[in-house]
Specification:
- By secondary structure, the protein is α/β, with parallel strands linked by helices.
- The chain has one domain (about 5-170, about 210-240): NAD(P)-binding Rossmann-like Domain (Rossmann fold, 3-Layer(aba) Sandwich).
- It has eight helices and seven strands; from the N terminus they run E-H-E-E-H-E-H-E-H-E-H-H-H-H-E.
- It has helices at about 10-25, 55-65, 90-115, 140-160, 175-180, 190-200, 210-220, 225; strands at about 5, 25-30, 45, 70-75, 120-125, 165-170, 235.
- The protein has a seven-stranded parallel β-sheet with strand order 3-2-1-4-5-6-7, with helices on both faces.
- The protein starts with a strand and ends in an 11-residue tail after the last strand.
Amino acid sequence: MRTALISGVSRGIGLATARLFLKEGWRVIGTDLKMDISPCENLTCHEFDASDPDESSHFFDELKAKGVAVSALVNNAAVQICRPLVQTTPEEWEKVIRNNLSSVYLMVRNSYPLMKESGGAIVNVSSVHANATSANIAGYAASKGAMVSLTRALAIELAPDRIRVNAVLPGAVDTSMLRDGLDRGHLADAGIQDRLNQLGQRHLLGRIGKPDEIAEGILFLSDEERSSFITGQTLVIDGGALAKLSTE
């Protein structure tokens, strides 16, 4: 049975991805700072900080001791702080970079021994903010843009070990992170459902995305039978948001 390791698994895109992998017959190991799903459904759950070098090392030492082989690593853990850059504290900046980027470095570095024997796939969950962004989200955009560059670099380095590395770039998806960030000033002041509707109408498809739709893209890039000749690439899943010029 193939094993997928998914960070940020307790809600949103991470949880939808875990459920889809399970449905497809994968074994899923999920990690998060705090598991708020009960009783972890059918997941093997671990609470730890993926951005902490000591906690990450300890977690992977346990996996190695159990002889776990990882076929797919999904780096999904992330935080978002919505604030103008000049008002962002050094502590907030460091928090975003640590959770969104340094965690990927640690997860890849520590999972490599569990993947190199048989090869596999790494999927980094970036964002459309890596390509085009908006006000008051500079730290998040910077971290997601760096993730795309890291994806390409890793694809080059890990190809000899038959490990493919790609990224998905979700657009606006109905998650708690999106809802929490709706007050950053890019939409008219209104109730949350009205803001979601406003945001949806800015997409070519007339709506925002669902976590399940992003999960399908992650599964595609993780599955050797479906995407065996794809590495170093980005898959944008955004309802057409990036296709239209902002000046139109």
